[in-house]
Model the fold of this input.
Amino acid sequence: MKKTIAIIAAALVLSFTASAQDNEFYPGFYLGLQGGANYTTSGIWPIAHTKHINVPNVALNLGYDFTPVFGLRANISGPFANFPDASMKDKIHRFNYAQLGLDGTFDLRSLFGGYRYGRTFNPYVFVGGAANYRLASDKVAKGLNFGVRLGAGANFRLSDVVDLSLELVDNALPNKFNTVDDGLYYLGFIKKPFHWDDNLAALVGLKFNIGANAQRKAAAMAAAEAAAAAEAARIAAQEAARREAERVAAERAAAEKAAADRAAAERAAAERAAAERAAAERAAAASAASATEHILFTIGQSNIRKSENAKIDHIVEVLKQYPNATVTVSGYADRETGNPGINKPLSQRRAENVSKALQKAGIAANRIIVESFGDTQRVSSVPEENRVAVCVTR
Done:
């Protein structure tokens, strides 16, 4: 015990010396959140060790680093532990508990190598005390135990604010924490001797360096303000030269803008002329692509007569000359003959026969629109001129 106290005292002296010699260290608070698993021991060891493991184990730390080496932290953790059943060799019972601890922490790299801000790997050890409250369950009564905490860990720097922390901790507690009763007997009459109940935990989590980082930011801000003041003085000395340079640049820019405006006006005029020429050419092309032919049929017939082939050839010629043009073929019948039931399919056949003739001449089917109106619409007051398929290209 005396040796332990001497080591702690020496660490405190060295830590305060390191703090005095290193101006970059800023004391401050930190917050830690950890999670992992715990392993509880008891006096009944024949039980398989893996049955002692419990998850989750969570811990919340609030600490303060006084020097590069030494700090204090308050700790609360839980929630599960276990104990063996003396009457059943392989039976484990679980219970809830809460632990409140206070640790002294010692940064090993600062202790033996001096403080340096921004290290990636920072191992540490800690020792302290704890109060452990066991909640009642159907197998165990509630109870309060006091013990000691000790362990080791390491912080891995992720940013100015956040560290990744890994930690192994042993909570050594008096008998009854992980056993039902301190009055167990061996061989029926030998009382079980006193022993420590250990609650071992492996934890991983995040450490948030709140206070020290805020102080570091304040110092950086003060330095930035001093640099800004020096920069302002330098800018003031250059202001006269800058204004003269701006005046010259403004005159040059005005001249360049005038020249650019003239060039833009000339370019706009040329573009308008080109647009007008293109519109005229499109209108001429559209006019040239427009053609209409009336393919006439004999009464009651849908076959194309030889006398009408020249009209179909004209439509084919226009469509081939203008590949983007399409043709609509509309079939009709005269209402003076037949009846609506006959005239509707008759007008459809007339339009389809013209479409087939166009396709046979090399016009793609997707460029031909076929429709029929029977005798419901008229293209002329003369009956013969209504026996027709009208082709319109556009």
